[in-house]
Amino acid sequence: MKDKLIRVIVFNGAGRSFCSGDDFQIMVDDFPPLDERFKLPHHKLIHLIRTIPIPVVAVLHGYCLGAGYELALACDIRLAADNLEIGDHRTSRAICMLHGASWFLPRLIGLARATDIIFTGRHLDAKEALEIGLINEVYPFKEFEEKSQEYIRNLAKMPTKCLGYNKSMLNYSLKNDLISSLQNEFHLFTENMKTYDYREGNRSFLGKRDPIFKGK
């Protein structure tokens, strides 16, 4: 990968599901004390997903539960097969959220819906998850691999640095006021103007052709 740019990062599950959830035995017997920021490896991963200036896509099928569900919430895009079952039943065993659902879920679907899902510990099917905005796309399971890969390939053709700047703007706006967000947008807009893809976008528009972005 030395001379190649990474255009998209993808998380998917091997086998019948994306993730069937936490190992309750480990959580009871071997759970570490939480006394430092990002001490848990999973927290470091969640933080990296949100700050890396590259699109991150979760490709979900079968079960997407527990910690795997929280990892999916952190991603920029969630693509799902129609056999998806997503949620977090840990509440039913008196286990709290741990990997960011309290931050991500209300921002994705609103506080009222997030509270219902968290308090009841219920699972959602793909149809409901799509309707409330928890996932971005749903494909029939037989076409899932083909359709999700097509989405990812199209995303990889986009101007990666521009997407990274836009991702940074969205993250910044979640914790800052309008004026500060406008100033941040202006700053990153001017940074993006220095990129190859910005110039390619303008050249292709004037030349009335499709752009060929290089992600730099």
Description:
The protein has 216 residues and is of the alpha/beta class. The chain folds into two domains: 9-156, Alpha-Beta Complex (2-enoyl-CoA Hydratase, Chain A, domain 1), CATH 3.90.226.10; 160-206. Helices cover 48% and strands 12% of the residues. It is built from ten helices and seven strands. The chain has a four-stranded parallel sheet, with helices on both faces. A three-stranded mixed sheet has the order 3-5-6. The relative contact order is 0.13.
Task: Describe the structure concisely for a colleague.
With 216 residues, the protein is of the alpha/beta class. The protein has helices spanning 24-29, 41-51, 66-74, 101-109, 111-120, 126-131, 144-156, 160-173, 178-192, 196-206; strands spanning 9-12, 56-60, 63-65, 77-81, 85-87, 123-125, 137-139. It folds into two domains: 9-156, 2-enoyl-CoA Hydratase, Chain A, domain 1, CATH 3.90.226; 160-206.
